[in-house]
Amino acid sequence: MNTRAALFVVAAAALTVTGCAAGQPAPTVTTTTTVTSAPTAPATSTATGTPTPTATAGGQVDPDAPAGQCADSALAVAVTPAAGGAAAGSVFFTVDFTNTGAGACDLRGAPGVSIVGDGNGTQLGSPARQTDQTLATVTLQPGQSVSAPLQQTNIDAAGGPLAGNCTVVPGDGYRIYPPHSFTAFFVASAGILACSNTVDWMNVGPVAAP
């Protein structure tokens, strides 16, 4: 499985998730990226701009961020199916970050990932558990992308492997926080399902160079 594949198109584009369980509709992940400084609701503006080291929404700065932290305004975010698709009750994706700025910038660590719904950005259940904390700073040149691996339990309307433990609800898409960022990006995903209770069903690793 290649978890390094990265693709971002600022204009809306559609990608079909492969490797879902037989009989389960495959959710469609779009790479339309919107950003909001309020983590309770997705906004409608596309993230563009030039990098400002360690700058985040509202002027907040994470003291653990790398010195050349990519500015939120210089990042585009997408979620794409990973090569290999599915295995042992799981489906795999990559969370992709593209440097849309004019200069190089850095990312380090795992992003924050959750599913949102109800048409207003309400978080559905637990966020992805961050795994593999062997962290390295990755430098992105202008136009370059890096990815973080995202694993999800392949739930269906009955919960799939988590039947009896997962309260299944439909979602609108992903809320993504870049590593060390306080700004939420929204990536739409038509047909996505989520566990609305506190069961762990997603895992995300740190960004890595392709």
Brief characterization of the structure:
Residues 70-207 form the DUF4232 domain. Residues 25-60 have a biased composition (Low complexity). The chain has 210 residues and is mainly β.
Give structural notes.
The protein is mostly beta strands and 210 residues long. The chain has a domain at 72-204: Immunoglobulin-like, CATH 2.60.40. Helices cover 0% and strands 39% of the residues.
Protein topology:
Blueprint: E1 14-16, E2 28-36, E3 75-87, E4 90-99, E5 105-107, E6 112-117, E7 122-123, E8 129-130, E9 138-140, E10 145-153, E11 168-170, E12 173-177, E13 184-190, E14 193-195, E15 202-204
Parallel strand pairs: 8-15
Antiparallel strand pairs: 1-2, 2-13, 3-4, 4-10, 5-9, 6-7, 6-12, 10-15, 11-14, 12-13
Pfam families: DUF4232 (PF14016)
Domain DUF4232: 70-207
Keywords: Signal
Helix and strand composition category: mainly beta
Report the count of strand segments. Answer: 15
Radius of gyration: 16 Å
How would a crystallographer describe the biggest sheet? 6 strands, antiparallel
Amino- and carboxy-terminal Cα gap: 13 Å
- Please identify, by name, the CATH architecture of one domain: Sandwich
Question: Topology as H/E string?
Answer: EEEEEEEEEEEEEEE
- The main sheet orders its strands as 1-2-13-12-6-7
CATH fold descriptor of one domain: Immunoglobulin-like
Strand fraction:
35-45%
Number of helices: 0
Q: Percent helix among the residues?
A: under 10%
Please state the overall shape, judged from the principal axes of the Cα atoms: globular
